[in-house]
Amino acid sequence: MNALTVTRRSENVRGGISAHCSSAGIPIGRVRTSRAWESMPDKLQVHTEAFRVLKPGGRYLGYDWLAADGLDLADHEQYIEPICQYHGIPDLDTPTQLDERLRQAGFAEPQVTPVESPADMHRTWDLLERHDQLAHGLNDPVIAFMSSGAKALYQGARANKFTIGRWEAEKRPVSSGL
């Protein structure tokens, strides 16, 4: 197997990365995740497992939701906790926490960056806000819950407390010592 993609919608994502890999234990060349690890309570374990199944020189690529660095408790309670509540997420890492976890898992020099600048995402937040406004006055608890989730996202993003980030990390080849 040369590549593995794990998304939040994957049936076996809760079974772990190794559940997707060959029982022969053959290392793979690339692991990609998209909105998968944010849902895991032990994020370090997810990154450690990705490191374990990669062959030397293998790449770990991801795209996920992140809390902004430097939030105080009040900002976390106002912006991040509602996102987590409405989207079924235990907690969001910050870019700095993600970088630290990737390094703890064994990856050298991970690159963690925002997917786009907040201005580039403005249209997305506008669409979520319009959805929220359209839902006002509807007497449907499911729509109200979904609207609250959309509102948590666009308010957090516009306040620069929430971002969408990506990362790339490599399992460095073992030096032969020669």
> What overall form do the CA principal axes indicate?
elongated
Major sheet, described briefly?
Answer: 5 strands, mixed
Helix proportion of residues, in percent?
Answer: 25-40%
What is the count of DSSP helices, taking H or I runs of 4+ residues?
5
Measure the end-to-end span.
Answer: 30 Å
Oligomeric category: single chain
* Overall average residue pLDDT: 82
Enumerate the spans where pLDDT stays under 50 for 5 or more consecutive residues: 7-16
β-strand number: 5
Description:
The chain is α/β, with parallel strands linked by helices and 178 residues long. 39% of the residues lie in helices and 24% in strands. It has helices spanning 43-53, 73-87, 95-105, 122-135, 141-158, and strands at 3-7, 28-34, 54-67, 108-114, 162-170. The chain has a 5-stranded mixed β-sheet with strand order 1-2-3-5-4. β2, α1 and β3 form a beta-alpha-beta unit. α1 packs across α3 (95-105), α2 runs antiparallel to α5 (141-158) and α4 (122-135) runs antiparallel to α5 (141-158). It is elongated, with a radius of gyration of 18 Å. The chain starts with a strand and ends in an 8-residue tail after the last strand.
Q: How are the SSEs ordered, and which strands pair?
A:
Layout: E1 3-7, E2 28-34, H1 43-53, E3 54-67, H2 73-87, H3 95-105, E4 108-114, H4 122-135, H5 141-158, E5 162-170
Parallel strand pairs: 1-2, 2-3
Antiparallel strand pairs: 3-5, 4-5
Helix pairs in contact: 1-3, 2-5, 4-5
